[in-house]
């Protein structure tokens, strides 16, 4: 593909997040939605009519087979991501897949390996990395405005409607705070420190259905650097991030969807960056995928595949600590009663 060529998008899974994505895609130059695929034709046709999309398919396979589609945005539930990605990649379709990338590191390793071998573009849709406010924060860090980054805190949590039959509370469908919202602060820490944590200490509150309803984690990195991360699907958290350096710090309000960033140097306010565009945030990740395809790239340097895999492996390491304590005699796990578990140790 050459620069300035229009990239044709297909939507796999016309759920609520797909509606937001398609609306935001109108802000991306050289990008056009040409088809949508659902498990039922009725759902696909309703979505296509609402968004003026030319083609609607009653199966994912039909969408994937459409020769006009260059890249497919996967917006299905967590547990379906791996199979959906693999089907697209095997057909030679580029993929932008919603978070979490997969259910675990083993699935992620298989998908990443296949994409690299096949040289087909693949990217995790971690929109936070591409937001102008986060880009500005990274520029301040790269230019040395806050010195060496030594510590960060990041929180993301909301209080979900308590329906224990819903996806959010079903462990088989990837329910729980870690995969639903915890991936944002964990990915944010990975972006800032550029490596996996050397050690993890974590505490989780496990609810009646067996999913983590909220958790806290302390990640330790080389040279004593640390990240304190909190997430919940049962508590409204102040969803901010602070990045602390030897000469100052940066505050990102509602960091996962940040519209502003404030810089403090030597304890004093220095400046604030505010982005006032109309985009919701999906446009920036879509623009990166579009740019990569136009340039003939098989992955993004901003959200590289090896880092996506490393993040999924970090999520596994967190879960493994919880699972180990659930299975010990001193901490028997009863799925009919709430309990809290905690652990600390090497990844």
Can you offer a commentary on this structure?
The model is unreliable at 327-343 (pLDDT under 50). This protein has nine helices and 15 strands. Helix content is 33%, strand content 27%. Helix 5 packs antiparallel against helix 9. It is globular, with a radius of gyration of 20 Å. Strand 13 (260-265) and strand 14 (268-274) form a beta hairpin. By secondary structure, it is of the alpha/beta class. The N and C termini lie far apart (41 Å). A nine-stranded mixed sheet has the order 14-13-12-11-7-10-9-8-15, covered by helices on one side. A six-stranded parallel sheet has the order 3-2-1-4-5-6, with helices on both faces.
